[in-house]
Amino acid sequence: MRKFWAVFVARNLEFFRDRSTLIFNLVFPIVLIFGFAYAFPGGGGTNFKVGYVGEMPARGSPADSAFLHYEHIQFVPYPGLAVPLDRLAHNQLDMVLDLNASEYYINEASSNGYILEKMLAPANAGTPRAFSKHTVRGTPIRYVDWFVPGIIGINILFGSLSGVGFVIVRYRRNGVLKRFKATPLRAFEFVSAQVLSRFFIVAFLSVVIFAGTDAVLHFRMAGSWALLAIVNAFAILCMIALGLVFSSRIKSEEAAGGIMNLITWPMMILSGVFFSLEGTPHAMQVASRIFPITYYIESSRAIMLDGAGFAQVAGDLGILAAMTLVFLAVAAALFKWE
User: Fold this and answer.
1) DSSP state of 55
2) Alpha-carbon distance 157 to 232, whole Å?
3) Per-residue model confidence as pLDDT tens digits over 207-231
4) For the whole model, what pTM was predicted?
5) What 3-state DSSP class applies to 104?
6) Is the dihedral of CA 94, 97, 102, 103 positive or negative?
7) DSSP annotation string for 265-296
8) pLDDT tens digits, one per residue of 128-146
9) Which of 22, 114, 125, 161 has the most CB atoms lying inside 10 A of its own CB?
């Protein structure tokens, strides 16, 4: 334990004494959160988003409507009404169509819903089966409320990969690992100290960033803080384990940077950080399931926005835990001191 504790303390001091790195890890995500909160005070885009239940009618059929073919409207299919109506109540959808019952739903407080209803009216008048109107009410969800789990996820991703991956690669290139190998320190003690140190640092930064921005922006929190902390812990461990994989044998920081970009950019684009994956091509949605950050973002948003409990996020936690074990096993098999 003395050897483990010495490496753990040394790694923490190395990070916190590097003021430029510490400030960047704190300031950059905070600037992003406040920037998006200012740029998108209500919603995150200009296009209209309509959820629908049932089969889209064939073009030109008696049940067809010109409204279903207007440009700048994104139609998102759902298997039932419960989920889209909940999203409509929170202003995550602008309208819901029930094509089976020829009904439409709008949120009385939504300006986009009002515009869509005016667009539907002339198209509705020319169809044999006119849509009947229903209204819902609910608390609108700001874009920043939806966006903040993605920013925290990106901070966890970069903090874990760079904090473990680059550090171990730098140690290997500078000969530090070679010196460690000549001491009584075992590989397990060294790696476990690195993991725990990075876990502490990333968790600390995530709490500071979230609490600092929440004090001003007051994020929506419908679920449990404890469950959100558990999800964050699982995600941090998974990202650290992934960082160990790509740093286990790489000898240069240039190669580590290239591999890190190869890993992180697809994650940011395909994991739903900046935009919802609902309504995107099926291939993109399938590809997003291979990234651990996808499960973190989905479970965090479910807890914060929808009040999801442990049963609703247990599947995501199980996948994160399984990925962590796989990454650790691969890293242990590939790890080399030199």
Assistant:
1) P
2) 11
3) 988 888 888 888 889 899 999 999 9
4) 0.71
5) strand
6) negative
7) HHHHHHTTSSS--TTS-HHHHHHHTT-HHHHH
8) 567 888 888 877 778 788 8
9) 161
Partners of 51 in the β-ladder: 76, 96
Residue position matching structure tokens 């996948």 = 319
Place of tokens 């684009």: 269
> What token pair was written down for 84?
């889209």
Half-sphere exposure of 190 (CA within 13 A, CB side): 23
Per-residue model confidence as pLDDT tens digits over 71-114: 888 888 998 898 888 888 887 888 999 988 888 999 887 888 88
Look up tokens 């409207």; give the residue: 73
User: Distance between CA atoms of 210 and 73, rounded to whole angstroms?
Assistant: 33
Q: Which of 256, 252, 33, 63 is nearest to 162 (CA)?
A: 256
The tokens of 136 are what? Answer: 């819902």
Single-letter amino acid, residue 30: I
Contact (CB, 8 A) for 70 and 47: no
Strand extents, DSSP E, the chain: 48-53, 73-78, 95-98, 103-107, 132-136
Structure tokens, 99: 């094509």
Sequence-distant (6+) residues with CB within 8 A of 254 are none
CB 312 within 8 A of CB 304: no
CA-angle at 335, arms to 331 and 336, nearest 5°: 170
